[in-house]
Amino acid sequence: MLLSCSSVASIAGKLVIGAWADRVEKRFLMLLVIACIVLQMAVLILEPGYITLLVICTMAGFAIGGELPVWAAMVAESFGAARYGSVMGAMNAINTALGLSAVYFIGAVFDDTHSYTRAFQIFIGAALVAGVFAFFIRAPRRNR
């Protein structure tokens, strides 16, 4: 049920945040996504009950779904259509490598400590650093 709710919310997040990305400052949308992920990890550290997990997984699913459209919109705005493919390709290669490393890291932390807490704490820190960087992203000025 948790995965189903997260997946359905992810579809909604792609549609809603994707539409917002055409109308709202993209870096603030990215900060919203990051805040939702940080909140999810913080709540997971507390090992909540089922209803809280259902709510937090649905919220995080919405944010995770919305991450790709706002990320793509930021890349397009920052690098332009001519470079979009090569920039997204390079970023996705790095993102995939980091994602695979994160799965290994989480497993290793759990094997060492019998808890996911340390991994979530480190990921919260990384997400907060990403939020600081996202806050300072500015779209380049274009000649009109």
Question: Which descriptors apply to this entry?
Answer:
single chain, 144 residues, 5 helices
How would you describe this structure to a colleague?
The chain has one domain. The chain contains five helices and no strands. The radius of gyration is 16 Å and the shape is globular. It has 144 residues and is mainly alpha-helical. The longest helix has 33 residues.
Helix and strand arrangement:
Elements: H1 2-20, H2 26-45, H3 50-79, H4 81-113, H5 117-135
Helix pairs in contact: 1-3, 2-3, 2-5, 3-4, 4-5
Concise account of the structure shown:
This protein is an all-alpha fold and 144 residues long.
Distance between the termini: 50 Å
Could you tell me the number of beta strands? 0
Weakly predicted, low-confidence segments: none
Number of folding domains? Answer: 1
- Give the C-alpha Rg: 16 Å
Mean pLDDT: 92
How many H/I helices?
Answer: 5
Amount of beta strand: under 5%
What does the largest sheet look like?
A: none
N-to-C order of helices and strands: HHHHH
